[in-house]
């Protein structure tokens, strides 16, 4: 997109975006990548902008009526803001908006390109993306969701953004979804039909892409749509990988971590932002490791770096005189050593801070109980004992424990049992609503027993202990608390 807007001269270009597309681009590339493509200025579509009639403009915007009207006001009349406009829409543009642009005869000669980029999703690493709908659970499954405007907007936007992924990858998916659990269609609720509604909306959007050049005409892959009831425990339980612990226990903004570094002038520590992303090779190597394994490997890496690096050795031992050849080796090795040392130091500090939180919050005991509940090795007695003896546990951790407990043993929250647990845990009524919603999300104990669907949380109907997972055979557990696994895993 940025490279295709080639102007006659080698002058700089302006890039104009809206609130959504600026997030798309910021998830995909850095400012340096944009400037490398000849962009000198990035502007907000809805802010007042300085006229630059000698420069070309790139518009990367959503195909909404408001955006099109704003674009036309920029480029129409005798004195447009920019010399030429190259317009790229983040998703398919309705025909009526294309006709609206065609009707403005003063703008048409000033348009260098008018294309659908089909790029409206937010990659968070090289294997995952989000559609940025933090309130989707409320807007799709909430009490007043049925026939609401928020429901339609959320579902259609989500479908459109998921579809742009397949347009980008040039893949035509066979869309599969989890059907309603009820064997009798008359018992199917509005909420049961949501996966089907989303699947239909995605399919309708993807079908339009068949007109894209080189887009497949038959299915090339599979898209599986599930709702959270397949595995409601995974987002709640404490997972013990380095990546999960970073996002769970540290105050991070997305993948951004703020670290304090000693001041060079000896004053207050300076705050420095670090991005934990795929370009960081240490992060890439350790992110899926158990936190204990990651801590050990970081210690070994730092020790090896210092022992093998000549510049480091010479920095540590400056008593002896250095030959000219030794000085040359120091100069050659020092920049690389400093970069490696700083990168490792960052992760050593992060791992240290995580381990400190684990100790301060007593997460090892809590994590053991959480996993014992999930694998059927603990029940009401162990939960009640924990709540009685660990009164200093944080409200959040007690809440998460009861959410897991309610998912595994929903019958323990019927009648007045829930209020007794609430008093013991010293949780607010609002917190207990969350626990009850967790129970309802997985269905009542009766419906769980009757469920025979292919995605049932029960693996073994004859098992005497109640468990939502079974231990994986043939896998030796090297690290403590590394037993848990999500129901759906990427292989």
Automatic annotation (TrEMBL):
It comes from the Eukaryota. One of its GO terms (biological process) is vesicle-mediated transport. InterPro entries: Sec-1-like_dom1, Sec-1-like_dom3a, Sec1-like, Sec1-like_dom2, Sec1-like_sf. It holds the Pfam family Sec1. SUPFAM superfamilies: Sec1/munc18-like (SM) proteins (SSF56815). Belongs to the STXBP/unc-18/SEC1 family. This is Protein transport Sec1a. It comes from Dipteronia dyeriana.
């Amino acid at each position: 997109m940025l490279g295709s807007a080639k102007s006659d001269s080698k002058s700089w270009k302006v890039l104009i975006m809206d609130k959504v597309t600026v997030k798309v681009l910021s998830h995909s590339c850095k400012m340096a990548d944009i400037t490398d493509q000849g962009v000198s200025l990035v502007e907000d579509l809805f802010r007042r902008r300085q006229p630059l009639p000698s420069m070309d403009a790139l518009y990367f915007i959503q195909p909404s009526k408001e955006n099109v009207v704003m674009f036309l006001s920029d480029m129409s009349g005798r004195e447009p803001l920019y010399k030429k406009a190259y317009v790229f829409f983040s998703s398919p543009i309705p025909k009526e908006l294309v006709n609206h642009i065609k009707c403005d005869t003063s703008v048409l000669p000033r348009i260098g390109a008018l294309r659908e980029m089909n790029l409206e999703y937010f990659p968070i690493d090289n294997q995952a993306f989000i559609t940025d709908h933090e309130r989707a659970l409320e807007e799709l499954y909430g009490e007043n969701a049925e026939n609401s405007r928020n429901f339609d907007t959320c579902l259609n936007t989500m479908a459109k953004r998921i579809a742009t992924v397949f347009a980008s990858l040039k893949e035509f998916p066979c869309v599969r979804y989890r059907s309603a659990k009820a064997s009798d269609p008359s018992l199917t609720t509005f909420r049961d039909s949501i996966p089907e509604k989303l699947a239909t909306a995605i399919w309708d959007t993807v079908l339009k892409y068949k007109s894209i050049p080189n887009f497949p005409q038959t299915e090339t892959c599979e898209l599986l749509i599930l709702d959270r009831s397949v595995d409601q425990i995974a987002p709640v339980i404490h997972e013990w990988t380095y990546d999960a612990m970073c996002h769970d226990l540290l105050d991070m903004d997305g993948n951004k971590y703020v670290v304090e570094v000693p001041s060079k002038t000896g004053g207050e520590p300076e705050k420095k932002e670090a991005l934990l992303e795929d370009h960081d090779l240490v992060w890439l190597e350790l992110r899926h490791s158990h936190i204990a394994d990651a801590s050990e490997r970081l210690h070994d890496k730092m020790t090896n770096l210092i022992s093998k690096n000549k510049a480091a050795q010479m920095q540590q031992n400056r008593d002896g005189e250095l030959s000219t050849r030794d000085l040359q080796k120091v100069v050659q090795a020092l920049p690389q050593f400093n970069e490696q040392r700083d990168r490792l130091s960052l992760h050593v500090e992060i791992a240290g801070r995580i381990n400190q939180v684990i100790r301060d919050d007593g997460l090892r005991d809590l994590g053991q109980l959480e996993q014992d509940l999930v694998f059927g090795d603990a029940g009401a007695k162990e939960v009640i004992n924990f709540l009685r003896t660990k009164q200093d546990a944080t409200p959040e951790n007690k809440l998460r424990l009861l959410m897991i407990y309610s998912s595994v043993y929903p019958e323990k929250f019927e009648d007045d049992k829930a209020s007794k647990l609430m008093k013991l845990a010293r949780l607010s009524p609002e917190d207990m609503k969350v626990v009850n919603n967790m129970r309802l999300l997985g269905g009542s104990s009766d419906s769980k027993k009757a469920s025979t669907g292919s995605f049932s949380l029960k693996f073994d109907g004859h098992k005497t202990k109640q468990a939502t997972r079974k231990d994986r055979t043939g896998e030796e557990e090297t690290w403590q608390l590394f037993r848990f696994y999500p129901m759906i895993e990427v292989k």
